[in-house]
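Format is chain and fold; as here:
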Amino acid sequence: MREFFDYATRVALFGSMLAVLLVAPAARAGAPAPVKLAVFEFELEDFSGGASVLPANPSDLEQLKHVTNEARRLIAESGRYTVVDVSGADTEAVKTHSLRNCDGCDAAIALKFGAQQSLVGFVTRISRMEYTVRFEIRDARTGAVVFNQQTGLRMGAIESWNRGAAWLIKNRLLQSPD
């Protein structure tokens, strides 16, 4: 009798392993592949008093790097996207941090790096204590805007730029069906 149970246990175990081996690839095949997303550095659009005559503030530039890194991290960790490295982009709009004004040139740049979509994010400074965070995602092949969101919040100090970007990513981008 014991031999029968050992045999039955082995058959059940083999059947379970076979089912796992057959079902796991099928489950993975049903999940969409992550979208290759080129996340460009966030840019500052400054409408505050004196912005046109004051030089760029090093703390603003440092904070923009933090926002960009946080956005890339959250997007990559989501599993919905693979962040494409665009650090080698050398177009004028990338160098001068003016992608927001180039009428969608980011899409063509992203395509050159193998991305399916591009993300341009920017912080709009209304005054020294009022900011909004916004980003736009384009289809790299067509240049069409596929996602465009803004915080709509009036945030305080520059340290809040990360929170605004994180909120948009978590509550808008990653909550959208695609």
About this structure: Helices lie at 2-30, 58-77, 92-95, 105-112, 160-173. The chain has five helices and six strands. Residues 11-28 have pLDDT under 50 and may be disordered.
